[in-house]
């Protein structure tokens, strides 16, 4: 940020807003991590704690929105300050939604824990780790006003989409093998989708950081890797192809 | 006066036609240089806002545009300023004619101590724009309508202009400026002596006037610059730091100094 404001109170308000985002980001990261753990370890207690903690994120979002509206009305921020306030509004919404996805995954992990374990569940921690890393990177990028870091995280979403697409195919195969797999596999599918969406919100935050620092939108289409929407898995196992020469 | 080639300033692009252009404009008060070489285009039917801290040269620059600085003995202007491509500092040019084409509204409303009617027809009379009573009547009505004042004063045109409220007086001054059908109107902090409602009336008026006139406004109120102008120029210590679309200047200025000023970080 540039030199200090002549009006000290404004400076403090901007700092407070930025701190609120950092704190909220910390909670959202922890929620995603705990939700993934709850799935991986079939830990019902942990899942319950995730569900309870979700209201914290809602409260943060309300508080940030209130601060932002107050600053828009009373300070009429301009230039980088205006972008600062807009960024806080947008990022808080992304973090709140990320928290919703964590909470929904935790809820499904409770159902999963009551069902026999299915193998594709092992892919969830991998997706989870990637989402956490992306989230951590974009939040660090926000704190440090680091555009390069934000853009790097933005590109990682492709990796996440690839993981999701392959999990999607795997899960479908399991469901076809044995109808008793359908219930746990459906929950898994939704959990994976939640993580994939959480990754999209991390990329949103990366875009917001870019706008905040540079003042221009992040241009160039992000490569869309989620191909599950087009995926078709044949009901019969494909005939074994002859091995190549 | 040096003759310079009319190249566009580096920061500007686009194909809009420039009503007025400044190239390398330097202003000296005695030995002291108040402007260090200003390059800017003023486009037709657009409001250009000049902003910057006190003493930055924005009013000085405004006053070069209709040669108001000529009245100050120690003031010297270098560089080229054109109106429709013609040098306004050409020694053969009639300054009175220039000021009819480039009108001015000042910070404090300054109606003549005459009737509202007399205030309006003073300029047209001076410039011989009308001779008959019904011609003058038409000018008075049209000018007051353009300034958004007609309905408030049409029944008391013979009352003194100084008896109006501050906001009405300022609109009377705008009507007076408009009466000679200028092409460009210069406004030097036209709202700084007015309350918020009168200010809103003037701002609304500026937006309407833009259809027929080109306007350059100096203001200390950045929100006002943001509200009324299409382009904004930021002056600092006698330099034009940055000029561009108002939206761009107030959301993402290019220069650190502009950023500092508009966000209130200016030392």
From TrEMBL, chain A:
Keyword RNA-binding among UniProt keywords: no
Gene Ontology biological process terms, A to Z: intracellular phosphate ion homeostasis; negative regulation of phosphate metabolic process; phosphate ion transport
Any matching Pfam family: PhoU
Coiled coil region boundaries: none
Keywords (A to Z) from UniProt: Cytoplasm, Phosphate transport, Transport
Cytoplasm is among the record's keywords: yes
Signal peptide: none
Cellular localisation: Cytoplasm
Domain PhoU: 21-108, 124-209
Main location: cytoplasm
Gene Ontology CC, one term: cytoplasm
Gene3D superfamilies for this protein: Phosphate transport system protein phou homolog 2, domain 2
SUPFAM superfamilies with a match to the protein in the record: PhoU-like
Region described as Disordered: 220-245
Stated role: Plays a role in the regulation of phosphate uptake.
Family according to the record: Belongs to the PhoU family.
Subunit structure: Homodimer.
Record protein name field: Phosphate-specific transport system accessory protein PhoU
Organism: Aerophototrophica crusticola
